[in-house]
Write a structure and sequence with these properties.
heterodimer; A: about 280 residues; mainly alpha; MetI-like fold; about 75% helix; B: about 325 residues; alpha+beta; Rossmann fold; OB fold (Dihydrolipoamide Acetyltransferase, E2P); six-stranded mixed beta sheet; 9 helices; about 25% helix; binds adenosine-5'-triphosphate; binds magnesium ion
Chain lengths: ~280, ~325
């Protein structure tokens, strides 16, 4: 009896999981399918599968707005902001994990709380600051702003990893004559490589997908793939197929990256939960 | 060179003074053991010397130079941790060579030194392994290798043997003692095991609740304990204490008799009692005797005594070996 019941439950759970996965995946699938239609056929839902397939939209998109330039910007901005974030967050997480004060907990909570603020609330001040500093439509400017956006998450993730490292080992390094910098470079970072790697991956994905700041602070030069997609979203005209082609092109790289590194990512996100 | 001096060192965590006021002078080349019950501040005192904790007040002098504010890296001390604290991502050779690398020594010189240290510690065939592929005893050796590879002013050991099994512990104890004879470098060794303390130390610091109760050679502590705490802590099995009228007869608030300083007889003696538990070790027999009016006492007799639970015995303390204490627990010397 118990066995039968548990089998039944397994089947139910599996079916539910598949349904949920399909519901989540469906828009992506539909986008990809639409991208292989002509503009006229793309909105013709009733005969969607009878109309011919074509890759014309892709050529058109590339010729109209140079995919590779945007792709390149996306890579620079997401990787750059992530490396910048690591540069600041490794020492920060070190001090929070290994040299905490009575206020450390509060500071961490405060950092997290900044993520709850709607970004648009600071759009005007940041826009003006960027304008004054000449950082508008500039890759450096975007790297900085995305780094700041993701810093709380990066610090929290690294903090969780660092907490797992026995402080004895760092103290041993100090006794062995390591300065603070050498302690970080030779002992802490190598020991935290798995954690740093998954933090890095997640942050690249977050930065890649970030659309608010990248759209508002760029025009032409530094525009990443989000801007590339947005340029096809228009209230007038028929752009479904081209919009879909642009979207497919934009998400493909990060999808591949996520696919390759999913083990790392899952491990990173559940770390600490399952010791 | 490696003398270590503590001058009125205080260490408090918040309002809690873990080390209220410690002053201590350790001579160059001495093997000093810090011993005391769990939580008495042994590790804290060692970590203060190491620089891993900051003093709340007081000075720490190394070779006569004030190092109170110096970071651990500047103190030229080597430490062996209870957990070994090996670098898991480095090989044995890299672990041992790490202090030299930090000192900026070139690779060839490091290699030579590492080989030399590994040979001393029987680690030569493990140099390419990672710590997780070593046994407990081997890890311990690597930790020691990492300490001896450069010439530190002093070695600090924090209960280095407590994770090893009994047999290995005795071996490592001898090896560390031998190492000290060879190197003649100052060593401070923390333990709560008084046998380790007695066998290894040139001098022992007995700590109780952060206070230094006595600092002396093992035999001084055994023969002339400064107070009741030291008398009870040094010696195994523990000293028997008696207070009340029996102590008053000796002009003291309390008296103490070591288990090995009592005669046992089945016919006559000073104190009559009943055997509770008899522990037969072969070489010795420990008797736990319920003495009428005085309570439980432990007696150590040589060889195999045919005494068992429920037997009536008489105990007679050796009058020359009775320790006398005043009402504050301080030793009374002259009779
Ligand atoms: N970082 C700290 N914050 C607060 N209290 C501490 C801290 N470190 C140690 N203590 C306290 O100081 C006291 C002494 O600790 P310590 O580790 O020195 O004891 P110990 O003699 O080494 O004991 P053991 O034999 O168990 O290792 C303990 O009461 C401990 O709770
Ligand atoms: Mg301790």
């Amino acid at each position: 009896m118990a066995r039968a019941a548990s089998t039944q439950r397994k089947v139910t759970v599996t079916i539910v999981a598949w349904v949920v996965a399909l519901v989540i995946f469906f828009p992506i699938l539909w986008t990809v399918l639409t991208s292989f239609k002509s503009e006229g056929d793309a909105i013709n839902i009733s005969h969607f599968f009878q109309t011919p397939w074509s890759i014309e939209s892709y050529f058109e998109v590339q010729s109209r707005s140079d995919y590779f330039r945007h792709f390149f910007n996306s890579v620079i901005i997401s990787v750059g902001s992530t490396l910048l974030a690591l540069l600041f967050s490794i020492p920060a997480a070190w001090s929070m994990a290994f040299a905490p004060t009575s206020r450390t907990r509060d500071i961490m909570m405060w950092m997290l709380s900044t993520k709850m603020m709607p970004a648009v609330g600071v759009l005007v001040p940041i826009y003006l600051i960027f304008k004054t500093l000449g950082l508008l439509d500039n890759a450096w400017g975007l790297m900085i702003v995305l780094m700041l956006m993701n810093l709380p998450i990066v610090i929290w993730m690294l903090y969780t990893y660092f907490k797992e490292i026995p402080v004895d080992i760092l103290e041993a390094a100090r006794m062995d004559g390591a300065t603070l910098g050498k302690e970080l470079v030779y002992v802490l970072v190598p020991m935290a490589v798995p954690g740093i790697a998954s933090t890095l991956l997640l942050n690249i994905i977050l930065a890649w997908n970030e659309a608010f700041w990248t759209l508002n602070l760029t025009a032409a030069n530094a525009a990443p793939l989000t801007a590339f997609i947005a340029s096809y979203s228009s209230p007038e005209g028929l752009f479904w197929a081209k919009l879909s082609a642009a979207s497919t092109l934009a998400i493909a790289p990060i999808l591949v990256l996520g696919w390759i590194s999913q083990k790392q990512l899952v491990r990173g996100l559940t770390f600490g939960a399952v010791k | 060179m490696g003398s270590i001096q503590l001058q009125h060192v205080n260490k408090s965590f918040g309002a809690h003074a873990v080390i209220p006021d410690a002053s201590l002078t350790i001579e160059d080349g001495e093997f000093v053991v810090f011993v005391g019950p769990s939580g008495c501040g042994k590790s804290t005192l060692l970590r203060l010397i190491a620089g891993l904790e900051d003093t709340t007040s007081g000075e720490i002098l190394l070779d006569g130079r004030d190092m109170t504010a110096a970071p651990p890296a500047k103190r030229e001390l080597a430490m062996v941790f209870q957990s070994y604290a090996l670098y898991p991502h480095m090989t044995v050779a890299q672990n041992i060579g790490f202090p030299l690398k930090m000192a900026g020594m070139d690779k060839a010189a490091i290699d030579a030194k590492v080989k030399e240290a590994a040979a001393t510690l029987n680690l030569s065939s493990y140099l390419d392994r990672r710590p997780r592929n070593l046994s407990g005893g081997q890890r311990q050796r690597v930790a020691i290798g990492r300490a001896i590879v450069r010439q530190p002013k002093a070695f600090l050991f924090d209960e280095p043997l407590s994770n090893l099994d009994a047999a290995l512990r005795v071996n490592m104890r001898l090896e560390i003692s031998e190492l000290h004879q060879q190197l003649k470098t100052t060593m401070i060794y923390v333990t709560h095991d008084q046998v380790e303390a007695m066998t290894m130390a040139d001098r022992i610091v007995v700590l109780n609740a952060g206070n230094i109760e006595q600092f002396g050679t093992p035999m001084e502590l055994y023969r002339t304990p400064a107070n009741r705490f030291v008398a009870g802590f040094i010696g195994s099995p523990k000293m028997n204490f008696v207070d009340g009228a029996e102590a008053a007869k000796h002009g003291a608030a309390a008296i103490g008799v070591r288990p090995e300083h009592m005669q046992v007889s089945t016919s006559a003696g000073a104190w009559k009692g009943t055997v509770g538990v008899a522990e037969h070790l072969g070489s010795d027999t420990f008797l736990h005797v319920n003495v009428d009016g005085l309570g439980l006492m432990t007696v150590r007799t040589e060889g195999e005594k045919q005494l068992h639970h429920g037997d009536t015995v008489w105990l007679t303390p050796d009058p020359a070996r009775i320790y006398r204490f005043d009402k504050d627990g301080r030793s009374l010397r002259a009779n």
